[in-house]
Amino acid sequence: MDRVPAAALNRVRRAPSTLARYYRSLRPHPAAELVPQPHPWLRALGMVVVVLLGAWLGLLIVGDVRVPVGPMNTTMTLRPSLAGGTKINVSPLGALELNSHRAPVRLDVNVDQLDPDRSQELVDHPERISGLQQEITHDVEHGTLDLALRSCVAVVAGATALGLAVYRRPRRALAAGGLAFTLLGASGATAYATWNPESVLEPKFSGLLSSAPSLVGNARSIVTEFDVYQQELARLVTNVTKLYDVTSTLPAYQPDPTTIRVLHVSDIHLNPASWKIIASLVKQYDVNVIVDSGDTMDHGTAAENRFLDPIADLGAPYVWVRGNHDSLTTQRYLEHMKNVHVLDDGRAVSIAGLRFAGTGDPQFTPDRSVTPGGDRAEELAGARLATALRDQKAAGRPVDIAIAHEPTAARQVDGDVPLVLAGHLHHEGMEIMKYGTRLRIEGSTGGSGLRAVERQYPAPIEASILYLDRDTRHLQAWDEIRLGGLGQTTAEVTRHLAKENQPGGSPSPGTTPPSTPPASRSGATPAPSAP
């Protein structure tokens, strides 16, 4: 038997001690055990921040797609957003905002330019416009799919790259990319679940006021002619085409002749800029009649009467009721003005196919010699107006629109008329009251007058275009117009449809007032004190 060399035996004897030293080396140094480790929640929060920031950077770098949509060249982009929705930028005219979905991503569509060749084909062959919706639908679907793929790659790549730069570990970087992909998938699922194709029926426009009628479109046509998203999209793009190609032979905006357009203004408060704005709206929207629900003046003195002279040149009949800042002196001056119809004590008048009745405010705030009667005085004035409305209906001449300055008075005609207009509160509002009457409260078309300088931010200038069916004389839709106040130049137009005119909607209680309204109603909702 061969003998084992002594050197080999020594190595075997030393092996346990070598292994012991090796395992001891794997133990952390005692000082290292004193270093605090991050809490798991903090590590998770840090990962989320890295993922979100990386995803955002990825979208900024490569997350857009250039897509031809009909006659226009557009750029589609996904952007992080808390509210979601779609924003269509039509520079330099303005932007349309659609409440298309609710998800943490917003779709931005920038209209870059109008393709002259494709636009000329529409001009030369107008019959192609009828088939434009199919072409646009295909273009949008193709662009959206391409955008979704690019955005997915951009989000995952951005999160992975930033994760690698921050953590310097491939596994953590891949985890960041995987989390970004999961969040994007969840956002897409949320957008799909909340997708609202009818949002194009009620767009919000911000930009040049003169562009709003053509870009937003005609209420009657939208209500009666379009019931699916593809058709609405075609109409929207066609309107934009008309705006861009101003020198072509494409037809200009033409309001539907079966729609009556009423411009509702209120609380001008001696703001001379209001007359130019009203005249512009009358021209742009081809307004049939203007309704002023009071507080045109500030103190109601005879010296202020010359302020009213531009009313004669506004281009449409002017229906007016007295507000609590308008005096009887103001009222008598307007009664002698051409094309002005002053309504008081339930007096009715027929204009542009509609029948109006109204009452002046029973209180005159600037006159300190008169003790204000408060809500009780307003309720009595509203009750007298309601009696006049019932008398008109009994005589076979029912009123379509009632007018009172104070909402407290306006609420007393609930059930006696389809629509009642008011002001006074300096902010807009719309509601259907208990017995079916729709109450529309207008904001201040004068931006609160001199009161605009009393606030930290100037009060906006507000007005509304009301679209009524010429046959039924019921409200179809309305556009809320909001301009920046003193020293500001912003403009917003928001389209609203009456619920009964929305796709799948059923007639609301306000469509047909009750034939036998309650004889007496108490407990009217009080309004705030006079502005």
TrEMBL record:
SUPFAM superfamilies cross-referenced by the UniProt entry: Metallo-dependent phosphatases (SSF56300)
Alphabetically list the UniProt keywords: Hydrolase, Membrane, Metal-binding, Transmembrane, Transmembrane helix
InterPro entries named in the record: Calcineurin-like_PHP, Metallo-depent_PP-like, Metallophosphoesterase_sf
Q: Which residues form the Calcineurin-like phosphoesterase domain?
A: 260-427
The residues that cross the membrane are 44-63, 147-167, 174-195
Listed Low complexity bias regions = 518-531
UniProt region (Disordered), positions on chain:
495-531
The name of this protein is Metallophosphoesterase
